[in-house]
Amino acid sequence: MQHNNVLILDFGSQYTQLIARRVRELNIYCEIYPYNKIPKNLEIYKAVILSGSPNSVRGEAVLHPELKAIRGKKPLLAVCYGAQYLAHFSGGEVAPSDSREYGRANLSFVKEKEEFFHNIYTGSQVWMSHSDTIKTLPENGVLLASTDEVKNAAFKIEGEQTYAIQFHPEVYHTTDGSQLLENFLVHIAKVEQDWTPKSFVEESVAELKEKLGNDRVVLGLSGGVDSSVAAMLLHKAIGENLYCIFVNNGLLRKNEFSEVLEQYKGMGLNVKGVDASARFLDALAGLSDPEEKRKAIGGIFIEVFDDEAHEISDVKWLAQGTIYPDIIESVSATGGPSVTIKSHHNVGGLPDFMKLKIVEPLKALFKDEVRRVGASMDMDKELLGRHPFPGPGLAIRILGDITAEKVRILQEVDAVFIGNLRKWNLYDSVWQAGAILLPVNSVGVMGDERTYEKCVALRAVESTDGMTADWVNLPYEFLQKTSNEIINKVKGVNRVVYDISSKPPATIEWE
Ligand SMILES: Nc1ncnc2c1ncn2[C@@H]1O[C@H](COP(=O)(O)OP(=O)(O)OP(=O)(O)O)[C@@H](O)[C@H]1O
Ligand SMILES: O=c1[nH]c(=O)c2[nH+]cn([C@@H]3O[C@H](COP(=O)(O)O)[C@@H](O)[C@H]3O)c2[nH]1
Ligand SMILES: NC(=O)CC[C@H](N)C(=O)O
Ligand SMILES: [Mg+2]
């Protein structure tokens, strides 16, 4: 994209995505690349940021970026590991600090009249997370700020637009972090703040027109935010050549298939609803292992898509609502293999027999940006505010094997829970919510009779991107009413529990 573009080089810090978010919040476009996969077309980047890292510049696991084409040639901001790297390999010294420094600190010295610290003063709170410390500055280093514990908390290199900070401007607890990034990017590097949802729509539509021409495209539409926004963008670009397919996998929420189809009617999209519930339920029969269930569902999704694509003559492309976190998660900074926690049904590419090319118009956006892009196209607020819902649907919320009866029970429970969240005006303050059907029966007493029925768990989390999450402190009264209503209304359930686990160590979905 021909924007004022910022390059973030990732050394594996858990905060790299946050740097990108903070930069985007300044309406500046940026991209993350692994430190050892620096893009060749460097001319499009107006500034470069080096992230932190779990590695140490002193150990054998030091990560060496190739900075020849960057250092001294482009404005450069080095954070934590990045700062240590600049110090250690340019004539300074990095050593283990006497005590590890995690958490809050305050700037005790800030060099006056420095553009880098414009509007930031002594006392400003910063967030530290390091165990090495910069003992001496590199050649031509000029001290810009200190804390009580860390003398060399910020420095610049005389004669270059190179700045380095030991603390993390990207985390919320660094109070003036955004100001600092603005000082560097806008005031020093002169990057323009021209990246807005509206400009994104205009440019994407133009790019899609160019790329797709008169080709036909199929898109899996799920009723969720990502695929709906992707559909609107594509529709603007290629109109009737976009064929949307919404699959009823029999694992959707109660009435979701018909409601979502209805909702799409007003949007001018060309949507086909395909009821494949029997195929999915057949494929799932007898499976109770979470990964086996996920793989079976992924397989049927592909079969259904393939069948549908064959119905339309001359389809060339498959469009997907993939978003940025999906991409970043699959590239590891250090190139090492990361373990598979869950096989997402939509990740992993297409089998060879499907000869379609992939188009992913949202692959550079975070979820909240997708919502803003949707809003700038005047899409329905309710649709944009929908909680994420996993493609494998209720199958990963019914622990163990799946039967039509279990799906029915869970649909009813979920409908009461989500309905009540809406009634109590809690829906929008929760990032995602759902109910889980547990594979246990427990004893109860209803109308003087013994029952031996199912137990359900309710889960509601707050999060920004689903990578980490915490359970929501829902009002007791809400939980009480909801639990009552579920047990009274849903035959087969006699116990309700509330999940109070954060992610990590738990995940949002139970399977
Ligand atoms: N029932 C479905 N029918 C057709 N395609 C689907 C269905 N469920 C999921 N998909 C496809 O899988 C992709 C990934 O699903 P995912 O849930 O991550 O995104 P989403 O549904 O678009 O948005 P959200 O995260 O808000 O639920 C979707 O973008 C869509 O292309
Ligand atoms: O489209 C999807 N296909 C999947 O296979 C899948 N698995 C989990 N999720 C959603 O991802 C987010 C994180 O979920 P976990 O904490 O359970 O990994 C949560 O928002 C989950 O709902 C999925 N979405
Ligand atoms: N957050 C970081 O970048 C830490 C850098 C280095 N691993 C240290 O512990 O000092
Ligand atoms: Mg979804």
What is the share of helical residues?
25-40%
Number of β-strand runs: 18
| Low-pLDDT stretches | none
Instruction: Output the strand order for the largest sheet.
Output: 2-1-3-4-9-8-7-5-6
CATH homologous superfamily name of the largest domain? HUPs
Find the structural class using helix and strand composition.
alpha/beta
Q: Work out the helix count.
A: 13
Residue-averaged pLDDT: 92
Described by the principal axes of the CA atoms, the overall outline is: globular
Rg over C-alpha atoms, rounded to the nearest angstrom: 26 Å
Q: List bound small molecules.
A: adenosine-5'-triphosphate, xanthosine-5'-monophosphate, glutamine, magnesium ion
> What is the CATH C-level name of the largest domain?
Alpha Beta
Query: How many distinct folded domains?
Result: 3
Distance between the termini: 37 Å
Tell me the strand percentage band: 25-35%
CATH architectural grouping of the largest domain: 3-Layer(aba) Sandwich
User: What about the largest sheet?
Assistant: 9 strands, mixed
CATH third-level topology of the largest domain: Rossmann fold
